């Protein structure tokens, strides 16, 4: 398996950042500096006299090192900011085919989304091969050919012409059979093409995804350390 295959796609990061519990890392990152400043002037222990012979001691120390959890939060916040800046709009807008269909786009709209992908030249070898094998794009020598431009939007179909590896391709939607739109084949095509576009956008910007995954790994490791410190502290309390 190639190294790139071990790096998660954008849709995984989107799902991860939507987990509510991890969003508290952002809150912790914000309040820790305030807490640290206040705690500097506080004693580590407070003795409360119960009677002349008995004092009750309250420990003000956290059961883990707050610096470790802050580092965890810092890594998470940086990763989240990078995600917000660099995430593909297609991935953030359409969580799945279900969300895409809820927009009730015209069948032609998928051509415009395809144009955005083609202009990015993102993993086009795989995209073109799969689309060609499935019969959704064809090789053309049409005199109307203009690379990466939409042609004849006002006709029965919307066309996209693009050049890849010195070969001219044409993509058109909706599917026309016997002079009219075939609803069944068009729906199947939209489903298939959506996931092809989704997959290609999900694998874009490898370097950024690598950095985000590295930051999240550090965040989870440091969080685990703080968590284990807390458990250890709890065991010590019960043992005593």
Architecture overview:
The longest helix is centred in the last third of the chain and has 34 residues. Strands 3-6-5-4 form a four-stranded antiparallel beta sheet, with helices on one face. A two-stranded antiparallel ribbon has the order 1-2. Strands 7-8 form a two-stranded antiparallel ribbon. It starts with 9 loop residues before the first helix and ends with a helix. Strand 4 and strand 5 form a beta hairpin. With 240 residues, it is α+β, with helices and mostly antiparallel strands. 22% of the residues are buried. It is elongated and about 100 Å long. Helix 6 packs parallel to helix 8 and helix 7 runs antiparallel to helix 8.
Q: What is the oligomer described by this structure?
A: single chain
Total E-strand runs:
8
Strand fraction band?
Answer: 5-15%
Average pLDDT taken over every residue: 82
Q: N-to-C SSE series?
A: HHEEHHHHHEEEEEEHH
Search tags:
single chain, alpha+beta, four-stranded antiparallel beta sheet, two-stranded antiparallel sheet, 8 strands, about 15% strand
Secondary structure: elements and pairs:
Elements: H1 10-17, H2 20-39, E1 45-49, E2 55-59, H3 66-86, H4 89-93, H5 97-102, H6 109-120, H7 124-133, E3 137-139, E4 149-151, E5 158-164, E6 167-173, E7 176-177, E8 180-181, H8 183-202, H9 206-239
Antiparallel strand pairs: 1-2, 3-6, 4-5, 5-6, 7-8
Structure at a glance:
The chain has 240 residues and is an alpha+beta fold.
